[in-house]
Amino acid sequence: MKKAYLEFTVGLFVLIGLACITYLAVHLGELEWFGRGYQVVADFDNVSGLKVGATVEVAGVDVGRVEAISVGQDNQARLTLKINDKVTVYQDAIASIRTKGIIGDKYVKLSLGGASDPLSPGGRIRNTESAIEWEELIGKYIQGKV
C-alpha cells in the first residue's frame, strides 16, 4: 500500500511539472494557441530585417504579430498581419516598418486611420512605408548623392 501511494505521489508531481513547463513554454515563447484576431495584408517595397513573429504596434502598444512574409503581386513583399479583435483598423490606415533603437529589432508601426469605414478582415492596407536601409543611405552619402 505504501509503495502504491509513493508511486502515485511521484506521478502527480511529474504531471504538475510537465504542466508548469508547458505553461512557461507558451507564455515565455509568446505562442498563441487560441489567440483571437483578424488578418489584414500590406504590400511593401522592402521589408529587410523584418521577421515572422515581429510585433505590430499602435502608439507603442503591442496589438498584433506578423504572421507571414511572402512575395506578392508586382514583386513586392506581402505581410500578413494578425491584429487583436479589440483594435479597429480603418481604410486609410498606414503601416510602417520601424526599428527599435539604433540596432534593434524591426517591427510594424500601425497608424489606425480615421476614415468612416473599417478595414474588413482579410483586407489590404494600401498606405505603407518601407524599411530604411542604412547601408544604402550611407553609400549615397559617401558618393555625394544625398
Question: Could you describe the 3D structure shown?
Answer:
25% of the residues lie in helices and 32% in strands. An eight-stranded mixed sheet has the order 7-1-4-3-2-6-5-8, with no helix packed on it. The protein is built from two helices and eight strands. The mean pLDDT is 81. It folds into two domains: 1-31; 38-139, no CATH class. The chain has helices at residues 2-28, 134-142, and strands spanning 38-44, 55-58, 61-71, 77-83, 94-99, 106-111, 124-125, 127-129. With 146 residues, the chain is α/β, with parallel strands linked by helices.
Keywords:
eight-stranded mixed sheet, 146 residues, alpha/beta, 2 helices, 2 domains
Ordered list of secondary-structure elements with their pairings:
Layout: H1 2-28, E1 38-44, E2 55-58, E3 61-71, E4 77-83, E5 94-99, E6 106-111, E7 124-125, E8 127-129, H2 134-142
Parallel strand pairs: 1-7, 2-6, 5-8
Antiparallel strand pairs: 1-4, 2-3, 3-4, 5-6
